[in-house]
Amino acid sequence: MSDTTSETTTDPIESDEGYALDNRTVSAVRLAVAAGDSQRLGTLLDPLHAADIADLLEQVDSGHRREILLLCPAHFDGDVLSELDEGLREEVIGFLPPDILAEAVRDLESDDVVDLLEDLEEPQQAAILDVLDVPDRVAVEKALSYPEFSAGRLMQREVVMAPEHWTVGQAIDHVRANKKTLPDQFYHLIVVDPRLRPVGYVTLGKLLASKRSVKLTALFEDSFRTIPVSQPESEVAYAFNQYHLISAPVVDDDGRLVGAITIDDAMTVLDEEHEEDILRLAGVGESSLSDRVIETTRQRFPWLFVNLVTAILASVVIALFEDAIAQIVALAVLMPIIASMGGNAGTQSLTVAVRALATKDLTGSNVWRVVRRELAVGLINGAAFALVMGAVSLVWFGSPDLGVVIAIAMIVNLAIAALAGILIPVTLDRLGVDPALASGTFVTTVTDVVGFFVFLGLAATILL
Amino acid sequence: MSDTTSETTTDPIESDEGYALDNRTVSAVRLAVAAGDSQRLGTLLDPLHAADIADLLEQVDSGHRREILLLCPAHFDGDVLSELDEGLREEVIGFLPPDILAEAVRDLESDDVVDLLEDLEEPQQAAILDVLDVPDRVAVEKALSYPEFSAGRLMQREVVMAPEHWTVGQAIDHVRANKKTLPDQFYHLIVVDPRLRPVGYVTLGKLLASKRSVKLTALFEDSFRTIPVSQPESEVAYAFNQYHLISAPVVDDDGRLVGAITIDDAMTVLDEEHEEDILRLAGVGESSLSDRVIETTRQRFPWLFVNLVTAILASVVIALFEDAIAQIVALAVLMPIIASMGGNAGTQSLTVAVRALATKDLTGSNVWRVVRRELAVGLINGAAFALVMGAVSLVWFGSPDLGVVIAIAMIVNLAIAALAGILIPVTLDRLGVDPALASGTFVTTVTDVVGFFVFLGLAATILL
């Protein structure tokens, strides 16, 4: 069995994109669905990982999704539900027969049930809670009592712990005796004091390799860190990435052990945080390929509307100089170049700043050094492009004065763009606003308004 | 000991940003350096994790960096070097006394030495290879023979394996007997056939919990996957994230075990890939806050230059309609609005597409559905903003005809923006070009040129 698994995953010819679900499988699934052939569909779904089945459901349209689920409901276990895009879960859960759904949910660890539940509407939540056994249900309800996006929501409550006076032998016997209730994934034994406060942890590797008589306290890892249950999940992901944690105990306000977070969950959060940043920078709030036209339109409209308002603001600036433009039409031809260069230079500084804030590389202790650097870069690039555009304008329109005007405007706008690109995100961050969310609009407003004003204003002063 | 660790990390008042190095520590370090007080500096550095010491070095300027290293060279072990930004490693290694450097490097696992070496210049590489023991040196040189950014560079060669006929007891005895040579981090026992080909793996948790007589083959995990040694590291990171792997065996072309990759390395790669995407989308090739002015200027110039060329292209389109602008200056006032809205709508579609390509959610099987969706969204938002801008123009300039012109231009440009935003990255991806790298420029060129052409062309036709 393992041999074939190994071969399908390592043979690059099998799949055109390495690991992902390949097009051939998706087409074959479509054919099987069209033929209503549940046996063939089952054969196609069997070798797929839950994450790939979820991807398959995301890639087909709603009609196909329904037919796939009706033809092979047994293939949709809790893991597939967990992997599914949040926007689709409600739809898919609606299609599943209640018994299949109940079985799927019972298989999951408490953190996965929480993840599944938190985005569902009230009636679906209640239906799922009903199928859980009482202890699981209590665990899930407890987790849901923690704030959204906190460590408490992310953690699994199943942990393997040992008192600090134990030896390796006692710990191993304890693990063997509790074989049935062990979590699926655990890499450390968490050592606690009599008040259940974690005091250290031991990797299973060290536990295995040590003599039975060795004290657990002698095997503690340096990397031990606890995570407060109310800590935002983005901070949790940062800590895992920064300190190369594999798992970490979660503690309540009194420092008592309440659960554990493992790196695979932290990696998912890191991935989601990145997605959020990249989409917010582009003025897309949330987005998924499986969103429908109307959802997508509604998500993008507000950002475009904000952009329209700022664009009109820039137009008002242009309107101040209508007379100048009427006399020298070349100004209308050249002015978008200044705005475009300012916008791009500002976006460069801004993106570097947003990213550095996210990774905590940009802090109070180096912000002024970075501001000075950005300004210097803006001035140097501004001077370089001033020369280029001065020359282009001279050749194109034969006017040395116009060349001087555009050159000065270029330097000023690139310097302002650099400053706005760093100062705006830093200020928003200090105010507690996500800099990825709003900086872009502010920065391009500044570069547009300043760009048009300086260029047209100088032109009106010097050329008329 | 563990108690204090736990408290410093969990007390939110201790550090103003949760986990990161706090400003107070950085200031105290600066003071200690200014006073030349190596003892005080040592006290400040002692509690810091290697990743935080690396961050500290990145946040101060080059002069401070040198003084810190000279005052407390013993604090800079291999882990700090590994965590340090690539751009700074060469500088820091240059400051370190040879004996400290040798000791630092000897401590590291082979994958970390490789990571350290691959960005260094030839003489520094040779100096570091010289201090390694012969077996380590051979291992590192072997790893360096794999292509850059491949699984072979990422993996550690230290693995714990067992033949497939072994029992749990035999495996545990083997681990105990080889205690000294075990890798720092291992979570699975890799089970191999007589030709050293991995056939499955067993988590240490299952190994611990099972009776000594149980066959290893009875404990195999479903999640088992092997990674080809030449696979690009971005694919490796994708596989870990998609399939929730914790570690995976790496195999050569004959399927034989050559090493293992653990999730913390995959998480680092995922983080770097995201950084690359976000910076490339903003037209910043590579960037680090510790880069100097001249490096930063050089990195940003080419992207601005490309933008200048496309901006000039758009200006050429405007120049075609100089007569129309000279007669109706309102055109010059309004035209940046069309271009700005098109650019933003295009960036929205583009970012969603680039992200979906990176996560393999956008594939041949759903690309046309997504294109249709984007076009529909573009048309709907275009119609909405056409109404808004038509009304604004009518009120502002009192011309219904101008309102009609800008309304039509808005619909056409937002539809074109949507199409360009999805088709350009998909095409680049098929051609093997990173869509994050070049799509932005192409998309805004299309939206600028089309926007100006449609708006001014319609105006010239209808209004003159």
Automatic annotation (TrEMBL), chains A, B:
Domain CBS residue range list: 155-219, 220-276
Localization per record: Cell membrane; Membrane
Chain's role: Acts as a magnesium transporter.
Pfam family, one: MgtE
Segments traversing the membrane: 301-321, 327-354, 375-396, 402-424, 436-463
Entry membrane topology: Multi-pass membrane protein
Quaternary state and interactors: Homodimer.
Protein family per UniProt: Belongs to the SLC41A transporter family.
Assigned GO CC terms: plasma membrane
Domain of life: Bacteria
Record carries keyword Ubl conjugation: no
Molecular function (Gene Ontology), one example: metal ion binding
Keyword Cell division attributed: no
Keywords of this entry: CBS domain, Cell membrane, Magnesium, Membrane, Metal-binding, Transmembrane, Transmembrane helix, Transport
Chief site of localization: membrane
InterPro entries recorded: CBS_dom, CBS_dom_sf, Mg_transptr_MgtE_intracell_dom, MgtE_N_sf, MgtE_transporter, SLC41_membr_dom, SLC41_membr_dom_sf
Name assigned to this protein: Magnesium transporter MgtE
